[in-house]
Amino acid sequence: MLSSLVKAQDDRPTYSFNRQWFEEQAKQLASEPYVEQKLPVDSPLNNLSYDDYRKIQFQRSATVWKNEDRNFRLSPMHPGFLFKQPVKLNLIVGGVSRRILYTSEIFNYDKEQKAAKETQAGGYSGFKLTTPINKPDIWDEFLVFQGGSYFRGLGKDNWYGLSARGLAINTAKPSGEEFPSFTEFWIERPKEKATTIVIHALLESPSLTGAFTFKATPGENTVIEVSSTLYPRKQIEAFGIGSLTSMFLFNDVNRTRFDDFRPAVHDSDGLFMINGQNERIWRPLTNPRKLQVSVFQDTALKGFGLFQRHRQFTDFEDMEANYEARPSAWVEPIGTWGPGHVELVEIPTNSEIHDNIVAFWQPSEPLKANRAYSFEYKISWGSLFKAEDKGGRILSTATGKSLGSENIRDFVIDYDSMNLPENIEIHATASTGKIVGTIQKFMHQTGLYRVVIKFEPGREDLSELRVSLSSKNQTWGETWLYRWNR
What's the rounded Cα separation, in Å, for the pair 304 and 137? Predict the structure, then answer.
């Protein structure tokens, strides 16, 4: 069956491939009108329901490199359902690119899916990569590209959760968001025993084109080095580099709004950043009642990410979703990105099936037409990163009415106690309202260090809260930021 997927055919496009050629192709496309590629309107693949689509199964015998002594295997994914844009896949061997032509012969269909089986498409919907990331004799997924410019990665023992995107354009803007798509991929055949696989992807949208190269190294933390060159057709004011998309429904702070037996439901619970002054910042996520956009200015950002810090089954009590195993994602610039801001978008939702959290880096200068812009960075996927594991990680935030007072709210912040110093000082501020008291204590029951902030909002409806800790004029732990809404 493998031969049916990669066998030589007279009409299979074959040509030399290198990065320079690739960038020239992307630049040339940017000088031409954008042409959207979609399945034909009358294609039966457009009408596949979620259940119909799930019944279509890839035949493992058709897995690329299955019978070769390599650390990676590739499986194309079927088009249809939500994935209505055919994506071209190519394999690069010895600098020569050869197309993987679309065929339904490598999929198994339900007996009622004759029309889907007999329908031809201009490409697949994407692909997934496997490697023995968890056990030496089991090939598990660690990276998938499917839908728009979305891709998802896994570290060891993770389950799929949040996603990354090649580029975000006009996110949460009144004009409406534009969703660029990866329309063609070139995957380099890895050398035997290689621990890194290289993927090239063409990005297209009405506003620009882009040439992306991903170097993926799976492991305890799976690391993807991204090199991108963008070619705008017009000036773009609002765009996001290293864009991450996740889901936050509820936790202790807002669970009373949801009639649910579970104590929490989320893929990520906080935005973590290290700014140009090496300040480690934690901003708990929320599911607001109204669209909420937060901006964190910087001139020399060290990194940002959406993290999942609740890692126990009892944090979620969900036997199927495995939220405690969802990966965190950490974005680090390679070189400098200059001035700009991290933007956090929180969208109201009443269902865990909707991704409602977006975070990205927005440079201060717009992308101008007929110019080339390069951005390089790393995205790491896993459960814990060295960047955050330095003591004083904020593990949870809770809030409620202060005992004995109708007008004061308590905010309870729990820190890990690694490298806990003596004589900690609390520095707490509020943009409106006032801080009327603080409490701090090492919790012998949990081994955590707890700080309680007493906040009196007065007549205000919104306040930006900030808490940092120090000992002997030395900062300890992460800085806590929180946007309170009445």
Answer: 34
Q: Model pTM?
A: 0.93
The CATH code belonging to domain 2-382 is: 2.70.98.10
Residues in the chain: 486
Q: Is 407 helix (H, G, I), strand (E, B) or coil?
A: coil
The CA-based dihedral angle spanning residues 206, 179, 244, 232, taken in that order and rounded to the nearest 10 degrees: 0
| DSSP string computed for 298-312 | ESS--EEEEE----S
The DSSP code sequence of 372-391 is -EEEEEEEEEES--TTT-SS
Q: What is the pLDDT of residues 440-475, one digit of tens each?
A: 999 999 999 999 999 999 888 899 999 999 999 999
Instruction: Determine which helix (DSSP H) or strand (DSSP E) holds 351, and give its type and residue range.
Output: none
**CA 282, CA 284: separation in Å to the nearest integer?**
6
Q: Give CATH for domain 394-485.
A: 2.60.40.10
402-405: which pairs have CB atoms within 8 A and are 24 or more residues apart?
402/454
Phi, psi for residue 95 in degrees, rounded to 5: 80, 5
Question: What are the boundaries of each domain within the chain?
Answer: 2-382, 394-485
Among residues 193, 224, 248, the alpha carbon closest in space to that of 65 is found at 193
